[in-house]
Design a protein that fits this description.
extended, two-stranded antiparallel ribbon, about 90 residues, alpha+beta
Length: about 90
């Protein structure tokens, strides 16, 4: 299976262990998005017994079919902190 990563301000590796994002709106919790390497589950706030399960491919299709297209400006590339630290070390040795 391909390597999966999620970007939440910074990149997060997705492994076999489940991770959860709580989704909330102005009126409180909407549900939880539980994701792992193999699948994504949506747990509505009003239902703690039944969830909707998607493979990553299925989730992509659902989002593409139901989302509203929006043109977004390109994001600037962010230098990784490790690269900055290595650059600082290199310049301090000079």
């Amino acid at each position: 299976m391909a390597s999966l990563k999620l970007k939440l301000g910074q990149e997060v590796d997705i492994n076999k262990v489940d991770s959860t994002i709580v989704v909330a709106g102005n009126r409180g919790k909407l549900g939880e998005l539980v994701f792992s390497k193999g699948s994504v589950e949506w747990w509505p706030a009003s239902n703690s017994v039944n969830c909707l399960t998607f493979t990553w491919s299925q989730l992509a299709k659902v989002l593409e079919a139901n989302g509203t297209p929006k043109k977004v400006p390109k994001m600037k590339a962010v230098a990784k902190p490790v690269a900055k630290a290595e650059k600082a070390k290199a310049s301090s040795k000079k």
